[in-house]
Write a structure and sequence with these properties.
The structure is a homodimer.
Chain A (H helix, E strand, L loop, with lengths): L3 E2 L2 H19 L6 E7 L3 H17 L2 E7 L5 H13 L5 E4 L9 H7 L11 H8 L8 H12 L8 E5 L6 H10 L3 E5 L6 H6 L3 E4 L17 E4 L3 E3 L2 E3 L4 H4 L5 E2 L6 H26 L1
Parallel strand pairs in A: 1-11, 2-3, 2-4, 5-6, 5-7, 7-8, 8-11
Antiparallel strand pairs in A: 9-10
Helix pairs in contact in A: 1-10, 2-10, 6-7, 6-10
């Protein structure tokens, strides 16, 4: 038996098509706009930004990249963000990660106004995610939830194990699944008997950033496996899961590439459109 | 064998003594001040508020209660909170729960300025708790962490099971323990085989609000049991744990009353002092 592949590329294309129609139908005097801040010239960042720009273009979102030298002073970056917060022609702001070591990620994410928080990394956004009181979610967790929903995979009362406790995937995803009445276990590097803890799950989500971490010992035949890993091994892009072997055992699985990755971008640009709509709504109701 | 009782009353008294000294030593032109808003006349709320006022008084925090009729309009309450947000003589604001049904709790908690958020229920505070980037925590989860720390109970790599997924206990507590590298499982009413899931834990925390939910079947001899329940059964105040039987089996246990309850108030008034200190720090550095 082989697992059913949950095709994130296909689902993201469907979402983008819907988004394109919504944007065309609800366009005001200008298109939605995303501003991406890039510090330095990280090759992986270049690639991710290119993908974001292409996706924006394909659905009718204006996007621009402001590039800064790797040595930019924090207060210069701060000034730029505060000015973008006030710019009525910008709906979403995103600072491409990773940042150079002299710039504190939390400080930067806190500067971005919550009404322009495209990535969903602002503390207020994350608090509202925990409270289940928002339309804006960090893109990767939101993409994962949409992948599960696309196959009608039950969450209520299900056992979900998440490997990885990052601020942008593990923790917000945990709160989103808790809000959907799943029984959620969050593992980290110190977890004892990781394989055993994982094997208990109905849904296993690995966001550890460690290739071939999830082997046959971690899974069973009724399991759904979501692979959030984005690793490069000998120049080859792969996830956390030993796909070849695990996909022969489990019920559902996402591939890398073509699983969570494209969903992350689809959810990011959906955030930009939601921020745009909120902006227009607010300005029309005043 | 009988469990060691973790005495929340004693620990809260110690914390209050330290706080009293800190306040006396760091007092500016005025004492720290907490304003409590009470809507209606709920008898349990009256009791909780009285305890909060007494604790404030004992450590040198000024506290006042603003009482409102049960039928108060939301915009009146809003006006009061916005005015308190600007009041330079108020450091902490707290709206006593529960609220009458016509008032949305999330809306109200969102109104309280994050710099005056005594309860730690504001979304920005909760997001910062998730990000491990704050000094202010919701009082009950913070009290639980302090109870565990007081007995040097290991969290790193430990299996913690939390029963209950509320916005004020379960979810923020989960993020705090995840940040301490525990492997955390959050259960809810839909969890399958609850007893079995609980029995796997090194530390079991019940915040379900259901008396005698946690029985002998849920525990083992090396377990620490933290009882967050605050239930009234036939007029008797009790927790979620069948204390008589469970305390004969496990290693550590908190009683009700005298466990988490007094720690919650101690952590609340500590928040007020921290908000006061931040306020003074800000105003001296400007």
């Amino acid at each position: 038996m082989s697992a059913k592949i949950i095709d994130g590329k296909l689902l993201s294309q469907k979402l983008n098509s819907h988004l394109k129609i919504s944007i065309a139908q609800n366009k005001g005097v200008r298109a939605p706009k995303l501003t991406i801040l890039q510090i330095g010239n990280n090759p992986a960042s270049n690639k991710y930004i290119k993908n974001k720009l292409n996706s924006c273009k394909s659905v009718g979102i204006d996007a621009e990249v402001l590039k800064f030298d790797n040595n930019i002073k924090v207060n210069e970056l701060e000034k730029t963000i505060l000015s973008l917060n006030k710019d009525k022609n910008v709906d979403g702001i995103l600072v491409q990660l990773p940042l150079p070591s002299h710039i504190d990620e939390k400080f930067i994410n806190n500067l971005i106004d919550v009404t322009k928080d495209a990535d969903g990394f602002n503390p207020q956004t994350l608090g509202n995610v925990l409270l289940d009181n928002t339309q804006i979610y960090p893109a990767t967790p939101n993409g994962i939830v949409k992948l599960l929903e696309s196959e009608n995979i039950n969450l209520v009362g299900s056992n979900v194990t998440i490997v990885g406790r990052s601020n942008i995937v593990g923790k917000p995803l945990a709160t989103m699944l808790i809000n959907r009445e799943a029984t959620v276990t969050i593992c980290n590097k110190k977890t004892k008997n990781l394989a055993k803890v994982c094997k208990r799950a109905d849904i296993l989500i690995s966001a550890a950033g460690s290739s071939k971490l999830i082997t046959r010992k971690f899974v069973h035949k009724n399991m759904t496996v979501i692979d959030v890993g984005a690793n490069f091994v000998n120049g080859i892009y792969c996830g956390d899961v030993d796909f070849e072997k695990v996909s022969k055992i489990v019920k559902y699985i996402t591939p890398v590439p073509g699983g969570v990755g494209p969903m992350t971008i689809a959810c990011l640009i959906e955030n930009v459109y939601k921020l745009y709509k909120n902006y227009y709504h607010k300005n029309n109701s005043k």
